[in-house]
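Box S1 | Example of a co-folding query
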Amino acid sequence: MTALTMTEVTLTYPDGASRLTALDQASLSVDRGELVALVGPSGSGKSSLLAVAATLITPDSGDVVVDGVDVAELGKSARSALRRDRLGIVFQQPNLIGSLTALDQLTVAASLGDRSRRATQVEARELMDRVGLAGQEDRLPAQLSGGQQQRVNIARALMGSPALLLVDEPTSALDHERGAAVMELLRQVTDERNVGTVLVTHDTGHLRSDDRVVECIDGRLSERSPALA
Ligand code: ADP
Ligand code: MG
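Box S1 (continued) | Returned holo structure for adenosine-5'-diphosphate
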């Protein structure tokens, strides 16, 4: 099952009198259970690709299919439902809510849906445990380290068993060791939870020789083996 298929996606932004091309005929397919590391220089279009896959930006042309659903056919509310039900998004900054405990960060969005409160609590506790934060459920963000906050962020994105996980530079604020541990956690949850993961990183030191690596240069994508890094 394919988590994400992008076909010849072109995205431009207004740039003075002309347009800046952020994605240039970009095609990418990610299966469930597969992790793709998206690398490339700053400004090459990596975050733009995630925003298109996240259905937050509509491209100028090309097709985007998330978990079998053609995004172009969806209206605004159907897109937000798709994001809620099938997508997990982890941005660079954890964006945790300062007044909420770690556990509540996970349950607050889910409690807006129609699942039972109990099922949501059970899932949140399981995920906290899975990301190595058992016992930290009642802490506020200020009481957690940067690495722990990023783990809460990842656990929150996994609530509701998304088909597709989009992660933007999760290790950029972490030291090497903590960054490596977050990378390993992402590989493991990709496999265990059968989620397709697109992971933007410029930290190629965290890549393993068996990671699938796609390089973005000037909005164009190409498959690359990490051995060539
Ligand atoms: P990356 O994540 O690889 O650093 P981005 O996707 O953020 O790259 O940016 C790709 C290009 O698009 C860059 O030239 C950037 O300046 C430009 N860009 C990104 N977002 C916007 C925006 N909202 N409006 C205009 N230009 C943008
Ligand atoms: Mg970026």
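The mean pLDDT is 93. The beta strands are 2-15, 18-31, 35-39, 61-66, 69-70, 87-90, 164-168, 196-200, 212-217, 220-224.
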